[in-house]
Amino acid sequence: MFTTEPLRIVAVAAGLSSPSSTRLLADRLAAATRERLETEQDRAVEVRVIELRDLAVDIAGNLVSGFPSATLEEAIGAVTEADGLIAVTPVFTASYSGLFKSFFDLVENTALTGKPVVVAATGGTARHSLVLEHAMRPLFAYLRAVTLPTSVYAASEDWGSSGDEYTEGLPARIRRAGGELARAVTGGAAVSGASKALGLDDEVIPFERQLAGLRPA
Known about the structure:
43% helix, FMN reductase, Rossmann fold, 21% strand, EC 1.5.1.-, 7-stranded mixed sheet, 7 strands, NAD(P)H-dep_FMN_reductase, alpha/beta, oxidoreductase
């Protein structure tokens, strides 16, 4: 039986088409997080997905006038008050979409302080996967959020793929990211979550000792 107030998980999806792979990825990440929280931690969860395509006119109006509509203000409030955030964008011109950036331009730069965030993106080819590292992580670092270790990129060929002996398939990456977010919103440290995900020991071996082990006797 669930205890305490529900945890609020908000996913922001910046896909332009309907339906879109961006919305699909947001839904799957939210479902993975919900499953871990409900089945493993016995917590009630409220999930909300905000589709930015529905707010495009409101976002443009706010950028021009400086005043948000009631609908946009409510959406920004849901993001800033969430216990955990999932942010998913399609890749346009080797970066996040303009709509995605415009929405987060309207979020106060201290409003996400300490909030755990999973970043994810979709694109036609795996060549754009570094957008997660060179664009999305710096954006949320500026907003003072805690970006979780596992980010998820889904290229067209990833859907329905189970991976191979060298790489995890998309479903495994979604489950891992959902597990990290579930731990973070219930008080698990993001660093400790990263260590478990990467299979690291608690002991940190100094770099000098690692180098010494490579020198010939």
